[in-house]
Design a protein that fits this description.
Rossmann fold, six-stranded parallel beta sheet, 10 strands, binds D-glutamic acid, glutamate racemase activity, Asp/Glu_racemase_AS_2
């Protein structure tokens, strides 16, 4: 099976996954597509979102002809992996919160889950916690404000520390507990690893930040071997609302300026 690895997210969050793929497979051809016209996914109703994700990924697969699609979005993966697999012929790798490795690491048995409102309330996420962290306390924090901060940061503006701090107040409170303080945080949204330096600087105690990037890269390597090489060319970029800030962010991660992605299904607009 030849073709690039297609990375899909609502916005720039998938670039954290692109970075993990590049660390594991520096020569691999990558292609990036995002649905920034519908950002943020975490605040959208589920039924409309499923239709939209399937339509956007279909258009992106058509445009990129990839060997594999990486849904580099927890909000999309915890909702739409089954309909995506039914609608597409290429293999689909999803991104779900890294509860299992975080539970393996935590000494205090108290984890934080930082994700979008949608991911925090999904049954899929609840099942992950029951299955892999049954003996842990899990403090779930819906931190949608961080999505906008990561978008702005990659577009060239510093993250707003006061805004981050306010969104994370309940996480910091759990880290300050005297008995069994939280020691490990799952970054359950692909936008959040882009902010790790700011998050670490604000945290009241040293915390381990765990994301899914390495696990996704390993899964891609298992499914497609060998990966098609890029030959040193920048990966193509696609977006539902191309703009200059996105072009700036894509360029920093080795992708060309975004071309418009046209969706076939008018019902998804
Ligand atoms: N990056 C996405 C995720 O991993 C979500 C951002 C959004 O709300 O659009 O969940």
């Amino acid at each position: 099976m030849s073709g690039p690895v297609l990375i899909f997210d609502s916005g720039v969050g998938g670039l954290s996954v692109a970075a993990a793929l590049r660390r594991h497979f520096p020569e691999a051809a990558l292609c990036y597509a995002c649905d920034n016209a519908w950002l943020p996914y975490g605040l959208r109703p589920d039924a409309a979102l499923v239709r939209r994700i399937v339509a956007t990924c279909k258009a992106a697969v058509e445009a990129c002809r990839p060997a594999v699609l990486v849904v580099a979005c927890n909000t999309a993966s915890t909702l739409a992996l089954e309909p995506l697999r039914a609608a597409l012929e290429v293999p689909v790798v999803g991104t779900v919160p890294a509860i299992k490795p975080a539970a393996a690491l935590s000494r205090t048995r108290h984890l934080g889950l930082l994700a979008t409102s949608a991911t925090v309330r999904r049954p899929y996420t609840r099942r992950l916690i029951e299955r892999f962290a049954a003996d842990c306390r899990v403090t779930c924090v819906a931190a949608d404000a961080l999505v906008g901060e990561a978008e702005a940061w990659l577009g060239g503006r510093e993250p707003d520390a006061a805004r981050l701090d306010m969104a994370l107040a309940s996480l910091w409170q759990a880290a300050r507990l005297e008995a069994a303080p939280l020691d490990t945080v799952v970054l359950g949204c692909t936008h959040f690893p882009l902010l790790t330096a700011s998050l670490s600087a604000l945290a009241p105690t040293p915390l381990a930040w765990i994301d899914s990037g390495d696990a996704i890269a390993r899964r891609v390597g298992q499914l497609v071997a060998p990966l098609t090489a890029s030959g040193g060319r920048p990966g193509p970029g696609f977006a539902t609302a191309p703009n200059a800030a996105l072009a700036y962010a894509l360029a920093a991660y080795g992708f060309g300026p975004p071309a418009p992605l046209a969706l076939a299904d008018a019902a998804t607009h």
